[in-house]
């Protein structure tokens, strides 16, 4: 062997020895350039309207964190920016499962963020559990998450029971002679609808109301005329509904066209997007919708976030603060854990408290689940007027005229 080859071999051997003896953490730190976070999102299908707001909120939160240099990871002894990747869940649970599988296996994400409804998030969570990747939900029924005893999931949202009691509390404040007498329960036929529907039935019994009709419906139907005819035949005066915005628009249009004598319409999820308002115009008047965030909640950065969204889109939102907070807490959890290890990050949520988010101060229980409060608002002349919690100085419920 020539002298040059001998020197080269010795040099290579020494280099390999040095690399082998280096601590694994040092090598990982040298290699790791970013924190890859993935989210299933309804880029297509019936859920695109609320999902677009969620996507925007995630992007804004990540951009704000990255402007400050990223998230400090103690084990790597440096700050890393977050790289956010979305995968289309096509607005269906199977799509969410497939999107999560893609994000984990192909995009090699470190951590996951949620989609925008319980069925999709439960499907994605199952995949996250399979691959032991931490997944944090901002929109899933907390009771359903708790039942699953997940080991790699954290979640915060309002309870179906708490949310389902809101309309009955509103009705109880109506003068008795004008009070709702024949309400209809009209839930989408899936996990969300079943959970929420059960809560509505329990709350109706608690407050002394009885549904004259309880017909689950298939999401994505082209028409609801047969069910509306049934409502008319039963002389129904109120509808409690859950579904996506596309279905909600179809339902309200047909209710108006068929001249029903409903006095109260209250929709969850699909009736709060501004696209619902724009599509229906004056027909949105009197419709009541749910919500789980307001820029008037007094939380740090909430007002500014709401103003930023309105400036960018010419409309407001009842959801973005919660999704923004989801990213805020994930960044806090990474820093507290000092690691990108999913198990260590999830442990921060168990019994953990996160202060100063755009959703306010949030406390998680021993199953890494946090319960928040639902709100109610009524569309009036293109604005959301607060119905629940009640504030009569700002607004008083207006029932729909039946003449």
Q: Would you write up a description of this structure?
A:
With 403 residues, the chain is α/β, with parallel strands linked by helices. It folds into two domains: 32-158 and 298-373, Rossmann fold (3-Layer(aba) Sandwich); 161-291 and 376-388, Rossmann fold. It has helices at 3-21, 24-31, 48-67, 93-105, 118-131, 142-148, 160-172, 191-207, 225-233, 245-257, 274-280, 302-313, 320-337, 342-349, and strands spanning 35-41, 71-73, 78-80, 82-88, 111-113, 135-137, 153-158, 183-187, 213-214, 238-243, 264-269, 288-291, 353-357, 360-363, 369-372, 375-380, 383-388. Mean pLDDT is 91; it is low at 15-27. Helix 4 runs parallel beside helix 5, helix 7 packs across helix 8 (191-207) and helix 10 (245-257) runs parallel beside helix 11 (274-280).
């Amino acid at each position: 062997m020539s002298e040059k080859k001998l020197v080269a071999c010795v040099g290579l051997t020494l280099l390999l020895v040095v690399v082998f003896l280096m601590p694994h953490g040092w090598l990982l730190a040298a290699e790791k350039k970013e924190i890859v976070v993935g989210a299933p999102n309804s880029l297509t299908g019936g859920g695109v309207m609320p999902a677009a707001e969620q996507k925007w909120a995630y992007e804004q939160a990540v951009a704000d964190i990255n402007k400050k240099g990223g998230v400090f990871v103690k084990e790597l002894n440096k700050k890393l920016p977050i790289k956010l990747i979305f995968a289309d869940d096509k607005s269906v649970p199977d799509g969410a499962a497939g999107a999560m599988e893609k994000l984990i296996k192909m995009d090699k994400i470190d951590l996951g963020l949620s989609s925008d409804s319980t069925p999709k998030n439960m499907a994605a969570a199952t995949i996250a559990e399979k691959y032991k990747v931490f997944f944090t939900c901002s929109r899933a029924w907390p009771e359903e998450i708790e039942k699953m005893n997940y080991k790699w999931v954290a979640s915060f949202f309002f309870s179906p029971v708490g949310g389902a009691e809101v309309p009955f509390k509103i009705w109880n404040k109506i003068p008795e002679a004008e009070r709702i007498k024949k309400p209809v329960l009209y839930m989408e036929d899936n996990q969300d609808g079943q959970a929420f529907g059960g809560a509505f039935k329990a709350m109706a019994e608690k407050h002394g109301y009885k549904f004259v009709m309880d017909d689950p419906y298939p999401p994505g139907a082209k028409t609801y005329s047969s069910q509306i005819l049934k409502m008319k035949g039963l002389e129904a005066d109120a509808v409690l509904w859950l579904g996506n915005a596309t279905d909600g628009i179809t339902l309200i249009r047909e209710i108006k066209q068929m001249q029903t004598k409903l006095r109260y319409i209250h929709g969850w999820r699909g009736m709060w997007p501004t696209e619902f308002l724009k599509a229906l115009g004056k027909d949105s008047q009197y419709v009541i919708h749910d919500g789980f965030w307001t820029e008037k909640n007094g939380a740090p950065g909430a007002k500014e976030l709401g103003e930023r969204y309105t400036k960018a889109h010419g409309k407001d939102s009842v959801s973005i603060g919660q999704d923004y907070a989801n990213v805020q807490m994930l960044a806090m959890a990474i820093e507290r854990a000092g690691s990108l290890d999913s198990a260590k990050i999830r442990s921060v949520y168990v019994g953990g408290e996160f202060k100063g988010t755009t959703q306010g101060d949030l406390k998680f229980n021993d199953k890494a689940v946090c319960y928040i409060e639902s709100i109610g608002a009524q569309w009036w002349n293109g604005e959301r007027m607060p119905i629940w919690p009640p504030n009569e100085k700002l607004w008083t419920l207006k029932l729909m005229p039946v003449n």
